[in-house]
Each structure stands twice: as C-alpha cells, then as structure tokens.
C-alpha cells in the first residue's frame, strides 16, 4: 500500500489535488470494467500544503494498494549496474512472494527445444502473458495510459501510475493523451507494441538466468557468472525464449481482444472472419465518421433488431450514433455540404448495420433482442470518466468546494453499466456526464503532472 506522490514538473515529490482526483477515479473505473489495475483506497486533501505546477495548486494524497508494486523497471536498475546477485534475488522474491511459488507459474504452451524451462523462464512468460491480456483490455475499451515506460509496466500486468491517461473520445488510433508525446510513442495504436518493447527489456534483464536453463543453480554460475564457453549457447537459448514469448504475447493479445470485441458487439461466438469483416470495419467506420468509441457500443446495445429490417429503417437508426463532434458537424462547414455528408454517413452506417444484423443471425438466438441487449449492456459502459468529465470535476471540487459531485462521479465510475445512479431528479445531469464530449474538449490532452 503506497501513497501517490507524482514528482510533477518541479520534482518536489508532491501530488496535487488535480492529479490525485484523476488517479483516484480512474483506478476504480478500470476495476469496474474488469481491467487489471491498482486500486485507490482514499483521497485526502492537504489543506496546508501547496505545490507549484503551471500554477500554485493544493496538494493531496491518494492511498493506493496492489498485490505488488514491482515493475518491469525495477529489474532495469540492477541489470544496468550489472548486479547479477540483486537481479537474481529480485527474481526469486517475485516468484516466491508475489506469485506464491513456482507452482503458480504456467508452463509454456509449446515444447522447449533446449529442454524444460527453469523457474526464471516461467516467471518471464507469466509476466508476458498477463501484460498481453491487460493491453488487450485497454484496446477493447479505448483506454490509454499516456506514459508506458518500464517503470509504468507491472510484473502482474496491472494498470498503474496514471498521469496523462484518457479514454478515447472520437475514435482516432493515432491519438495520444500525453501532450508531450510528439512522436506518438504512447498513442492508442502503439500501446501493444510499446508494452512488448518493455517485455523485451525485461527479457534482457532475465536472459542470463533463463538462458542457463537447468544449469542456473550451479555453484560456479551463481558465484562467477557465465563462462566464456557458455556465452554463445546461452545467448541462443535466451533469444529463442524471448522470440517464443513474443509469439505467445501476440497470440494472447489477439485472442483476448477478439473475445472482448465479440462481447461488445453482442456475439456469443468468435468466427475466423470477424477480425476483418466486423472488428476492423467497425473501427474504420468510427474513424471515418468521427464517432465516439464507447458511445457506439452502448448505443448499439439499445438498438432493437426490428428497426433494421430494411434499408430505410437502418438509415433512420444511423442517426442514433451521431454526435455533435461527428465529421460532418465540423465548424465552418456549409449547411448543404453538411447535409450531403450526413446523408452519406447515414448510408454507411446503415450498410454496417445490415452486415452486423447478418452476423447476429449466425448466432443461436442472436436476433433475440432481450437477451442480446441485456448481455451487451453488461459489457458496454454508459459512463466512463473521460477527460472532459474529470476536468469539470476538478474545477468544481478545487475551485467551488463541491464535495458531493466527487462522490457522484465515483459512484458512476464503479457502476458504469447502469442506466441511472440516483433519483429521477438527477437523471438529466447523469445523462449529460454520459453524453457527447463538448466540442471544445474533444481529444483533450494532459501533462505528466496531470
């Protein structure tokens, strides 16, 4: 259990209220979506403490907890110092104290060409598998961490250390929530690649241990390290292990991503053609028309099959997915051109709905609205703490002293699949917080001290 202390721009070790509210809410929101994450226990305002950021801000503490705070970056330090003993001790501690023993580490799926894996390879492969699953969840729910260096990558596959994070607004695979990320290193599109890059760094740190195979506990190796005669064989074995882990990473990521996207689209099964014919076409449609990533799935959850019987009804239903930030609603566009583009968009969505309906018909009872809508609403959140919501929340708490709104947003974040959270008198405000992103706030980016 740790307090949250983001160093911020002045490296003063203080966390400001702004960043603390963001981390407190998103930790619980991710957990509610079943995404592996660290958790937030409490948020405490330090009334007498201030910190200099872009402006002077009040400080706060988030008390966080997790099964372990060891990161991939924790292995970087002894590795870069060539501290073999500390690397081994850290790996042994992780196996025994974090994972509860080698018996809890899963054997590789394929047969090892150089003999059975030792415990360090089992540890490495387990960390790779867990991170593959977590990044698949991020991609399926449009979550971006914003800073995915090795220090922000958990050996348990947990989402952690939330600075310039964001949930996707209008779908843009090149979007990065970090306004300092000019190279788009941490963009939505690049997250699976950058997590694998971190896994390779971990593989380098552990390569000597799993490269020795069954000889890893020999006394000479423990005391003196690799003998020159063993370098070539050890290097070849270690490289092979990392390569095979990479194939498993890719397979697990794709498998988990397909499973989640199938659920979000209301499918009970996964077909070989779904990736190209349904998942990719869905994302292409969102990107082309400027559709909100998560709203699309939630609104699809409510759409009855009966309104998709013919082309006209599908075209009318298409307007269900539009928002004030869609591509044909761009400022400065002439009304006639806007109307023409909107009509084209309706036809494209209508054609997608036709294909979606045909795919549902392949399922056993796939056209049963009651069952499908209920199951889709269980996995497609109505509320997500998007950046515009958090920005407004911070302003209301920090400037206006409103405390009730913090509890309200937290309640919505931990029960994201509900239709409403409070009495009917609050529904209008709830729907506003769940609604379209204000045009000026689409694609809001943050700094690392956010």
Automatic annotation (TrEMBL):
Give the GO cellular component terms, alphabetically.
mitochondrion
Could you list this entry's UniProt keywords, alphabetically sorted: ATP-binding, Magnesium, Metal-binding, Nucleotide-binding, Nucleotidyltransferase, Transferase
Could you tell me which species this protein originates from? Answer: Orbilia ellipsospora
In alphabetical order, the GO MF annotations are:
AMPylase activity; ATP binding; metal ion binding
State the Pfam families in the record: SelO
According to its UniProt record, which protein family does this protein belong to?
Belongs to the SELO family.
The answer to whether UniProt assigns keyword Endoplasmic reticulum to this entry is no
Q: Which InterPro entries match?
A: SelO
Signal peptide bounds: none
Q: What domain of life does the native source organism fall in?
A: Eukaryota
Q: What name appears for this protein in its UniProt entry?
A: Selenoprotein O
């Amino acid at each position: 259990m740790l307090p949250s202390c983001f160093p911020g721009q002045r490296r003063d070790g203080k966390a400001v209220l702004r960043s603390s509210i963001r981390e407190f809410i998103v930790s619980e929101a991710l957990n509610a979506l079943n995404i592996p994450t660290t958790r937030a226990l409490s948020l405490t305002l330090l009334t007498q403490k201030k910190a200099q950021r872009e402006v002077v801000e009040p400080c706060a503490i988030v008390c966080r907890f997790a099964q372990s705070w060891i990161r991939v970056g924790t292995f970087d330090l002894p590795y870069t110092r060539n501290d073999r003993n500390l690397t081994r001790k850290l790996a042994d501690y992780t196996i025994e104290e974090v994972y509860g023993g080698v018996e809890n580490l899963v054997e590789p799926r394929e047969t090892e060409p150089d003999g059975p894996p030792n415990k360090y390879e089992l540890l490495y492969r387990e960390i790779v598998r867990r991170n593959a699953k977590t990044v698949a969840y991020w991609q399926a729910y449009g979550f971006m961490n914003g800073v995915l260096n090795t220090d922000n990558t958990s050996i348990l596959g947990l989402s952690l250390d939330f600075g310039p994070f964001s949930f996707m607004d209008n779908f843009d695979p090149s979007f990065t929530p970090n306004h300092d990320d000019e190279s788009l290193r941490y963009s939505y599109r690049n997250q699976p690649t950058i997590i694998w890059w971190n896994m390779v760094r971990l593989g380098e740190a552990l390569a000597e241990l799993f490269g020795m195979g069954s000889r890893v506990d020999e006394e000479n190796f423990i005391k003196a390290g690799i003998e020159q005669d063993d370098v070539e064989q050890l290097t070849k074995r270690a490289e092979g292990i990392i390569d095979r882990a990479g194939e498993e990473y890719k397979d697990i990521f794709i498998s988990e991503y397909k499973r989640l996207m199938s659920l979000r689209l209301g499918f009970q099964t996964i077909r070989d053609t779904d990736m190209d014919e349904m998942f990719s076409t869905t994302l292409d449609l969102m990107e082309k028309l400027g559709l909100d990533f998560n709203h699309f799935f939630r609104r699809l959850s409510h759409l009855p099959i009966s309104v998709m019987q013919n082309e006209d009804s599908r075209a009318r239903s298409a307007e269900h997915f539009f928002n004030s930030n869609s591509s044909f609603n761009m400022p400065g566009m002439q009304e006639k051109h806007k109307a023409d583009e909107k009509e084209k968009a309706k036809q494209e969505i209508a054609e997608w709905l036709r294909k979606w309906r045909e795919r549902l018909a392949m399922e056993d009872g796939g056209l049963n609205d009651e069952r499908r809508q209920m199951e889709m609403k269980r996995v497609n959140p109505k509320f997500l703490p998007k950046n515009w919501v958090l920005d407004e929340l911070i302003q209301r708490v920090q400037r206006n002293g409103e405390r009730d709104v913090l509890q309200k947003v937290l309640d919505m974040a931990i029960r994201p699949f509900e239709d409403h959270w409070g009495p009917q008198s609050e529904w209008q405000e709830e729907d506003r917080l769940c609604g379209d992103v204000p045009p000026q706030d689409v694609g809001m980016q943050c700094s690392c001290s956010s």
